[in-house]
Amino acid sequence: MGSKERISRQKEETRSNILKAAREIVKDEGWQGLSMRKIADKIEYTAPIIYEYFANKEAILQELTCKGFRILTKDLETAKQISNDPAEQLENMWLAYWNFALENKEMYQLMYGVEMTCCAQRNTDTDAPYVLITNVIGEIMKDKNPIPEVIKQKYFTFFSVIHGLISINIVGNGLSDQINKQILKDAISGIIRYLKE
Q1: Is residue 58 a contact partner of residue 119, using CB atoms and an 8 Å limit?
Q2: Separation between Cα atoms, residue 59 and residue 28, nearest integer Å
Q3: Structural domains in the chain?
Q4: Mean pLDDT for each 10-residue chunk of the chain (197 residues)?
Q5: Where do the HTH tetR-type domain residues begin and end (predicted)?
Q6: What are the contacts of 40-47 at 24+ separation with CB within 8 A?
């Protein structure tokens, strides 16, 4: 391996370590506890080295936001592939969305601004889950030949219910897991029935 490749690999490794350290700090202290100094201390570098990779804390938050949306998109794509039936695909995708949010609470908080200022800027990463889900909604409603605004409205009906339930749970005022899953499934199946009418 040449020196250029080694240097490139080391830079990517350092960048990855910075992001990993940021996530670990957040798990322990919350997003408000994150600082460039704490990241530097955690990976045993000086703060100026962190600034060589990220201009500020907001740049790190933006990178983590995009990473979260990429992971969520992959989860949704995997869930969609479980079935060929659009209604089942949609249900699987929203359940995968739910699972992602509860397994990655800190990431979800950052992505959607639960109990914090959302730093997500619109880009292909942040739009991908919306595009995946609205395509399936459009497939379910294809006999009605819906306009894009109607599909968008249906997406936000789903999103409002599911995001609201997730937010309640992240804040800590949630119900038992069993009751939450039943509410979630009832909401998804009810909205899917409405889409088919």
Answers
A1: yes
A2: 20
A3: 1-54 (1.10.10.60), 57-196 (1.10.357.10)
A4: 81 92 88 90 90 91 90 97 96 95 89 59 77 94 93 92 86 75 88 85
A5: 12-72
A6: 43/14, 43/17, 43/18, 45/14
